[in-house]
Every structure is written in C-alpha cells, then in structure tokens.
Amino acid sequence: MSSPARPTTLGALKESGYAPRTVKQELRDNLRRQLAGGDKLFPGILGYERTVIPAIVNAVLARHDFILLGLRGQAKTRLLRALTSQLDEAIPILAGSEINDDPVAPISTWGRKLVDDAGDDAPVEWLTRDARYNEKLATPDVSISDLLGDIDPIKAATRKLTYADPEVIHFGLVPRTNRGIFAINELPDLAPRIQVGLLNLLEERDLQIRGFTVRMPLDLLMVFSANPEDYTNRGSIITPLKDRISSQIMTHYPQEMAVSRRITDQEAWTERESPVTIPDEFRRLIEEIAFVARESELVDQTSGVSARMPISALEVLHSNLERRALATGDSPLYPRVCDLPMLLPALTGKLEMVYEGEQQGVEVVTRQIIGEAVKRVFTEHFPEVGRELGSGSEDDAGPYAAIVQWFADGNSVELSDEQPFAEYAAELARVPGLMDLTDDHGNSPQARALAAELILEGLHQHVKLARQDLDSGVTYEEVVKFQLLRRNREPMESDFN
C-alpha cells in the first residue's frame, strides 16, 4: 500500500494537522519511542552499549548540545552521523528556502514575505533526514563566513538594498542546517576567534555577521568531537564555549578482544575472489597487535592507536594471501607467520612514537610490537616454554627440547611468504617433533603448518631460537650461532626483535 501524498502547499499542510516541533524535541520524542519499542540504537556501533550510547541517549533526552571526546579511530564521527536515525523521515519546508524555513513559522525575511504574499498557496517541499545533517572539519583556515555567513555585495547591488538589510546576507553552513544537526569535528583546531562566533549560537541562537546582529532563532542540535588531549591540555577550546556545551561524553577503544574482533569483521573488506581461511589464533594475533601497541611505552598513548589498524592489517593480509595464491596456485589459502612483515605498511602509519620510539624508528618498534603479540598468542595456545637450553646436556627438558636441540646441532629452517605450500610444509616437517605438537591445532595440513611456524616464532620470542630476515623470508637457527655471526658483520634488526 502506497503512503499518502505529502502536502505541497501551506494550506494543505495546515489541514493535515501538522504541528511544529524543535529539532531537539523531535529527537527526544523519537528516541523515547525507540527506547519503549526496544529498537536497537546506533546499529553498527559496537562496544559502547553500556558506556557511550547511554550517555548520548541521556544527552538527547535532556535536549543537550554535546561533545564526544576520544582518541582517533573511536567512531566519534560515525556516532554523530548516526543521530539522523532519530530524526523524522522528512519534514516540511518552504520550497526554495535557504535555511529550511518551517512553513507554519518561517524565521527568514524571505520566508515571511513569501507566506504574506502567497498565503495558504505558499509552496511546500519535504526535507529528508539525511539532508538535515551537516558537518565541518575544523581547521585553522575555517572562517566565520564559512560557518555563519557574510554580506553579499552583489546581492545588495542587484536588489538595491543596504548592507543593513537581512536579505543581503549569504548564509553559511550553520544557518543552512536550520532544523537539523550540525557537527564540528576536531573542535580544538578551530581558531579561538572563530569559536567566539559560536557562543551566541549555543546560547541565544542568533547570528552576528559583520557586526550586524540578525535576530534569527535558529533551531539546531549542535554536536562536536575532539581529542581529549587537545581539549584538556592544550586549552584549544575557549572556556566560554566549553561552558555552553551541555554534555561531555568520553569514547574509548574496545575493552574486550571479542568486541575488537567483531568491529574488524564488520569493517574489513574480506569478500575477495579467492577464498581465504583465517584461523582463530591468527585473527586473535591481528587484534593483539593493536592491544600491545596501546600498552607500549614507545607509542604515544595520548595520540592513540586507531581501531582502523587491525582493519587495515586484515585487509592487507588477505591481499598478501591473494598475491601468493596467484603466483603459486595454492588452495585453500591460509596465512603464515612469515606473512606478518608484509603488514607493516598497514601498521606503521597508524602509530605515533614518543621520543624513545622515534630514536629506535617506527618500523623497529612495530616489529617489536608484532613480536610481543605473537608471544602472547603462542603462550595462550601452546605449552609453556621450560628449560630447553639447546645445550644438549641432561638438563634439557620440556616439550620443545628436541626441537631446540635440533637447531643446536647446526640445522636451520628457511621459510618465505612466497613459497608454494608444499615447499613450506616440507621445510617445517624437517624439524623433528615439531609437527607432533600441532595435532590439536587443526585437521588440515595448512592449519597444522601454521601452528608449527607459530611454535618456531614462539621459541624465538622466548630466546630459544634465533631469527634472521632474508628479504621476503626468514631463517630460524641456533641462538649461539646467530650471535657469533652477528659479531662478524654489521648489525641487522631481527624481524620481530
């Protein structure tokens, strides 16, 4: 059944029983209805169900303008854009109005004249909820004209009006969002003199353009986002403006691994032509890299480690597996630990270093972070590393003793992300006892090979084996031999240490 036609004139709109509401009251009414009906609020936003979302709901119910404070990659902009789901499907405006005049109560000089001249025949059109949201990224070059508007001398000359006439104003983004939601992202980057221009908007709701006060009761929900470091330490938001923002809401990174994985699954582009299998422990490893980075003393935690990092890393991992499959013809596609260095382009650009980290270099620090993540996953899935000293003495003990001893006898293993699977698996099978430890880690040869390589990397992270980088591959060998070799050549960073 088709929905009834919407009124197209002011008279028809009045007959329909339309009653004006402020945008804040509209949001409040619709949100109350959604809460009473048990509707899911902010679909696609994960991890905020008991923290951020209740705070936003409270702010909307209180009819507050509010600011979201959080580090990068915490879905602040997505949350602000999702507010449109609490708006009506469409609202009536005077056709042709620059500032979305309510046909029943126009606020612009143009709108009032139209209603006075046309009466009930004044044309009405409908504005959808998505068209009622505007946002501006705050940068130092943003001007008052961009946000509020300016005097248009051409309009004044054409219509033979003085600059004191409201009709010569060219409206900016904010008044053009009248009866909607206006967001300013990264508010601290807005110049203080521009922030002053927002004071009247948040309190008195009138405009001041070129010293000419326009008494125009704008109907807006003003929302903002900012980095809390900028907000509290740099003092970039002027105090009177902070005072006028009624609610301040803190966002955060995923606090649980399961939530982080759900976010990555939801956002990462993994629907590729080639089918890829990412085992649970490797997915955990991707997420663990971000968690380790958020704890690292070498990473600037005031800048944050974006949730986009594991998303980008998973996408690059899929691409690397695609690249290998096209070159080798392998199927099914499984990841390898030696794929991890290929993820560096997705990681290094998302990490800001403190001074000590800059001294070491972002790539070196990132490799260390990957190594710690591997160590955590290895510790969770495999037996504890014991006294496997690799000396060949009677003191050697533990499940990895035979493996360490084999390397101590002068043997080594060379693995690459470009090897065909048969060659890769055969190289791992050379290590006595290694594959026996993978019986409980998958039924497929690919899953067991991954588990075997994870054991070698875990032993390396526990300083039982040495590791050398060889372009697109790595070599595992005896620690003592590796140390002797390093004394006779230039230092070379290990891939993960």
Summed up:
The protein has 497 residues and is of the alpha/beta class. It has 22 helices and 14 strands. It has two domains: 10-250, P-loop containing nucleotide triphosphate hydrolases (Rossmann fold), CATH 3.40.50; 257-487, no CATH class.
Structure report:
With 497 residues, the chain is of the alpha/beta class. It folds into two domains: 10-250, 3-Layer(aba) Sandwich (Rossmann fold), CATH 3.40.50.300; 257-487, no CATH class. It is 41% helix and 13% strand. It contains 22 helices and 14 strands. The protein has helices at residues 10-15, 23-36, 52-61, 76-82, 109-118, 144-147, 153-159, 173-176, 192-196, 199-203, 228-234, 239-244, 257-267, 280-293, 308-328, 344-347, 355-360, 362-381, 401-408, 421-429, 445-461, 479-487, and strands spanning 66-69, 90-94, 124-128, 133-137, 149-151, 169-171, 180-185, 207-209, 212-214, 220-226, 247-250, 413-416, 465-470, 473-478. A five-stranded parallel β-sheet has the order 4-7-10-1-11.
Number of helices: 22
Number of strands: 14
Main beta sheet? 5 strands, parallel
Relative strand content: 5-15%
The CATH architecture of the largest domain is: 3-Layer(aba) Sandwich
CATH superfamily of the largest domain: P-loop containing nucleotide triphosphate hydrolases
SSE blueprint and pairings:
Blueprint: H1 10-15, H2 23-36, H3 52-61, E1 66-69, H4 76-82, E2 90-94, H5 109-118, E3 124-128, E4 133-137, H6 144-147, E5 149-151, H7 153-159, E6 169-171, H8 173-176, E7 180-185, H9 192-196, H10 199-203, E8 207-209, E9 212-214, E10 220-226, H11 228-234, H12 239-244, E11 247-250, H13 257-267, H14 280-293, H15 308-328, H16 344-347, H17 355-360, H18 362-381, H19 401-408, E12 413-416, H20 421-429, H21 445-461, E13 465-470, E14 473-478, H22 479-487
Parallel strand pairs: 1-10, 1-11, 4-7, 7-10
Antiparallel strand pairs: 2-3, 5-6, 8-9, 12-14, 13-14
